[in-house]
Design a protein that fits this description.
By secondary structure, the protein is an alpha/beta fold. 37% of the residues lie in helices and 14% in strands. It contains 15 helices and 16 strands. Strand 11, helix 12 and strand 12 form a beta-alpha-beta unit. Pathway: Cofactor biosynthesis; tetrahydrofolylpolyglutamate biosynthesis. It catalyses: (6S)-5,6,7,8-tetrahydrofolyl-(gamma-L-Glu)(n) + L-glutamate + ATP = (6S)-5,6,7,8-tetrahydrofolyl-(gamma-L-Glu)(n+1) + ADP + phosphate + H(+).
Length: 500
């Protein structure tokens, strides 16, 4: 497994894999500020949740912050935040070409250009050093041990959030193997935190920590009562676990860098900057609610980048609680009943908009999603399966998506069959050959729409969005609540379409 990882990422040859090589290419790396490491959160599949909380806390404590996360949803600049804001296009291009030109000068047949993520990690180091941030928060990418972010030898503190079964083709087939890769960010005698983990994972983390003379500490979920009646900025009960870890990381960073908070402990009241940081943090595409600008009050999108079994379950709980609770509507910029008689109440209908990468197993994802929602009394009226329309390579808000008219929909049809079979079996009906019950028509744009009783396959995301808007316009007495999940690429594409 480790040999395959080396071959896949080119660890032995690519610039950035070794700290001395990184320093040679970019001498400013020696001036890097103190770092917090936090790996990719797996339980709720919210990339950067813990890092986002930590950045917001330290920014509200008065420090100049740099935050590096992945992936981006629409624009690559989202990965690089300075003082809570994504880097400007002007600065991004300046630093990008500075790094690219110098790397290009150093490359040859034996030392090629770094891979995509390695280049972005190096670019982050350059940005944070040049911008003279006080603290840089790095979200580890795919793994840990061999991750491009893991070149800083002496971070101030490290954190590992909830582990689950994801990227098993690279990280390992068991939680123990996955934990071993994640524990690669631990450094000798550097404080480290994690959250409550399954026994198999915790045993490996503790063993790795012990070998490095680290007293691994467990950060427990944040007590909501410590927020003075306010709510976490990131939705979902699971975020209290991430918030607890962020508080532990930040308090440790403050203490180790000579900025301790007087009389602060993990069980006492939270300092005001901590509360403000936790209640104002911002992260797109993670438990995010967006009303459609073309159908205000009739169509609301609930976006969550879940794409593992554990995160799908957390996503389903969040969506179910949101759609059962009308209170969240007061935070949106519309009044869903403004055109109706006083005292009347709008009906709601839940629709799923879904796609996932072919390396995922829909037989693990879709049952978790549907049955968790059903256990909370939420049933989907329709499931829509679509391809991603693009991957945005350009910089700037004017980058436009591309639509392939000859897109292969075989994967989407497979998702649809899995959903239909799941719906039938859940109702106690023996699964049938759903291919015979298929109806294929064309929409107003000429795109194919393939429908079953409980689901439809659209050949493009824009045609699915158009269908949703048309449906919402036809029935103004219903608020259509659309859960978008399964792929962060899908989340980014939807955001681009509904916000433009």
């Amino acid at each position: 497994m480790l040999l395959a990882l080396k071959e896949r990422t080119g660890i032995s040859s690519h610039i950035g894999a070794d700290y001395s090589e990184l320093s040679r290419v970019n001498p400013e790396v020696e001036k890097l500020p103190q770092y917090i490491f936090s790996p990719f959160p797996r339980l709720e599949q919210m990339p950067g949740s813990t890092c986002t909380f930590a950045e917001s806390i330290l920014r509200n404590c008065g420090f100049r912050t740099g935050l590096f996360t992945s992936p981006h949803l629409i624009d690559v600049r989202e990965r690089f935040r300075l003082d809570g804001l994504e880097i400007s296009e002007e600065k991004f291009l300046e630093y990008f070409w500075w790094c690219y030109d110098r790397l290009k000068e150093k490359t040859n047949d034996d030392v090629p250009m770094p891979t995509y993520f390695r280049f972005l990690a190096l670019l982050a180091f350059k940005i944070f050093a040049a911008e003279q941030v006080d603290v840089a928060i790095l979200e580890v990418g795919l793994g840990g041990r061999f991750d491009a972010t893991n070149v800083v030898k002496k971070p101030i503190v490290c954190g590992i959030s909830s582990l689950g079964y994801d990227h098993m083709e690279i990280l390992g087939n068991t939680l123990g193997e996955i934990a071993g890769e994640k524990a690669g960010i631990f450094k000798h005698e550097i404080p480290a935190f994690t959250v409550p983990q399954p026994d198999e994972a915790m045993h490996v983390l503790e063993e790795k920590a012990s070998k490095l003379n680290i007293n691994l500490q467990v950060a427990h979920p944040l007590d909501a009562n410590l927020l003075n009646g306010l709510k976490l900025a990131l939705e979902g009960e699971h975020q209290y676990l991430n918030a607890g870890l962020a508080v532990a990381l930040c308090s440790t960073w403050l203490q180790r860098t000579g900025h301790p908070i007087i009389n602060f402990n993990q069980t006492g009241p939270l300092p005001e900057p901590f509360i403000k940081g936790l209640t104002t943090a911002s992260l797109q595409g993670r438990a995010q609610i967006v009303p459609d600008i073309e159908s205000p009050g009739n169509l609301v999108f609930y976006l969550d980048g879940a794409h593992s079994p554990e995160s799908m379950e957390a996503c389903a709980r969040w969506f179910s609680l949101c759609t059962r609770d009308d209170n969240h509507l007061s935070n949106l910029n519309y009044q869903p009943q403004q055109h109706m008689d006083e005292g009347s109440k709008k009906d709601t209908a839940q629709i799923l908009l879904f796609n996932c990468m072919s390396v995922r197993d829909p037989q693990l994802l879709l049952p978790r999603l549907m049955r968790t929602c059903a256990s909370h009394g939420v049933c989907f009226q329709k499931a829509l399966f679509v391809p991603n329309i693009s991957v945005y390579h350009k910089v700037g808000s004017q980058a436009l998506p591309t639509v392939d008219p000859q897109v292969d929909l075989s994967w989407q049809f497979g998702l649809q069959r899995a959903w239909e079979s799941l719906m039938q079996s859940d109702k106690g009906v023996k699964p049938s050959n759903t291919d015979q019950a298929c109806e294929e028509v064309k929409d107003d744009t000429g795109m194919r729409v393939t429908s079953f009783k409980n689901s439809s396959v659209f050949s493009s995301l824009p045609s699915a969005i158009k269908w949703l808007r048309d449906t919402a316009q036809k029935d103004r007495f219903v608020c259509f609540q659309v859960l978008v999940t399964g792929s962060l690429h899908l989340i980014g594409d939807v955001l681009r379409l509904i916000k433009k």
